Write a sequence for this structure.
C-alpha cells in the first residue's frame, strides 16, 4: 500500500461507490480487531482452529481495505490519493502492531499495550469519516491547504510573541549550562538583528496571506472536471506543502545568536517557494481575472521584504 501505485481501472470509476466500499472495509477491520483482541484478553487461549479462523478473518479484512484503496485511480488526483493511502497505511500498520502485541503479551491478563493497540486500530479505522469527500480532488486540496495554513499561523504567532520589544527570546528557559550565563549577549537580539528580523517577519506574514488567499481561491473557483484542473490543484497542494518547512527553517535561524547569512539564505528559500506558489496559482483555473489583484500585491510584498533582507545583510557577503 505504501509503495504501490493504483492503476486505471477498466470499469468507469464511481466516487460514491468507492467511499461506501472504503467505509465498509474500514468498519469490518475495526470489528475484526475487537474480535481478535477479545479472544486473547483472558485464558483459556482460543483453539488452533479458532486461531486460524481469527487470523483468516483479519487477513481478509486487511486485503479488502487494500483492494478498495487500489480502486482509486491516479486520475482522481494525487492529493486525494495520498490522503486515502495514508489512512489505509495507518489501518494496516495498526493491525500489525495489535497482532505483534498479542503475540508478545502474557496470556494471564489483558495488557495495557493490547488495549492501546486495539484503540489505535479503532482510531485509524475512524479516520475514513474525516477524509475530504467533496468534489473529487478539490476537497482534498482544500483540506491540505488548510492544514498548511494552520501550521504557518502558529509559527508566525510564536515568532511575533518572541520579538515583542525588550522580551528575552529564551525567557522561558532557566539558566542553562549550554546557553551559559543569562547575561550572555548571544541570547539577546541587537538592534541590527531586530531590523533584519522585521523584514523576515514580513516574509512570514506574506506566507500566511499567500496560503489564505490560495485556499479561498481554491474554495471559490477550484474544479476537478478535467485532468488538467485536477493536475493544477495537485500542483498547488504540492508547492504549498513546501511553505511550512521553509517558514520553520527561517524562524529557527532568527533566534540569537543571529547569523545574518543563514537568515538571508533561509529567507531567499522561502521567497522562492512563495513566488512559485503565486506563479502556479496565477496560471491555474483557480485565478480568474478577479483574483489577479492579490497575486500581484503579494508578489510585490515578497520582493519588497526580500530586498530589505538583502540590504541588511549586504555587508556580510
Amino acid at each position: 500500500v505504501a509503495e504501490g501505485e493504483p492503476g486505471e481501472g477498466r470499469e468507469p470509476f464511481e466516487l460514491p461507490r468507492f467511499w461506501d466500499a472504503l467505509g465498509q472495509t474500514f468498519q469490518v477491520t475495526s470489528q475484526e480487531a475487537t474480535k481478535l483482541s477479545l479472544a486473547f484478553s483472558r485464558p483459556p487461549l482460543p483453539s488452533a482452529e479458532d486461531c486460524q479462523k481469527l487470523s483468516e478473518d483479519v487477513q481478509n479484512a486487511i486485503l479488502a481495505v487494500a483492494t478498495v484503496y487500489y480502486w482509486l485511480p491516479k486520475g482522481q488526483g494525487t492529493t486525494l490519493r495520498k490522503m486515502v493511502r495514508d489512512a489505509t497505511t495507518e489501518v494496516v500498520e495498526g493491525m500489525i502492531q495489535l497482532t505483534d502485541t498479542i503475540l508478545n503479551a502474557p496470556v494471564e491478563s489483558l495488557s495495557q499495550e493490547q488495549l492501546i493497540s486495539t484503540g489505535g486500530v479503532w482510531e485509524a479505522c475512524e479516520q475514513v469519516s474525516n477524509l475530504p469527500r467533496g468534489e473529487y480532488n478539490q476537497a482534498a486540496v482544500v483540506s491540505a491547504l488548510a492544514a498548511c495554513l494552520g501550521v504557518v499561523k502558529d509559527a508566525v504567532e510564536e515568532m511575533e510573541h518572541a520579538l515583542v520589544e525588550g522580551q528575552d527570546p529564551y525567557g522561558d528557559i532557566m539558566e542553562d549550562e549550554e546557553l551559559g550565563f543569562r547575561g550572555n549577549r548571544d541570547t539577546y537580539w541587537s538592534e541590527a538583528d531586530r531590523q533584519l528580523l522585521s523584514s523576515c517577519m514580513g516574509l512570514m506574514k506574506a506566507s500566511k496571506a499567500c496560503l489564505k488567499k490560495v485556499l479561498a481561491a481554491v474554495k471559490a473557483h477550484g474544479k476537478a472536471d478535467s485532468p488538467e484542473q485536477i493536475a493544477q490543484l495537485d500542483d498547488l497542494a504540492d508547492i504549498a506543502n513546501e511553505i511550512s518547512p521553509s517558514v520553520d527553517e527561517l524562524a529557527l535561524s532568527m533566534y540569537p545568536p543571529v547569523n545574518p547569512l543563514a537568515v538571508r539564505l533561509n529567507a531567499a528559500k522561502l521567497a522562492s517557494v512563495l513566488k512559485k506558489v503565486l506563479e502556479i496559482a496565477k496560471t491555474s483555473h483557480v485565478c480568474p481575472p478577479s483574483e489577479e489583484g492579490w497575486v500581484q500585491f503579494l508578489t510585490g510584498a515578497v520582493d519588497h521584504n526580500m530586498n530589505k533582507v538583502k540590504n541588511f545583510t549586504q555587508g556580510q557577503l
Remarks:
- The CA atoms of residues 50 and 192 lie 73 Å apart.
- The chain has a mean pLDDT of 87.
- The longest helix spans residues 191-221.
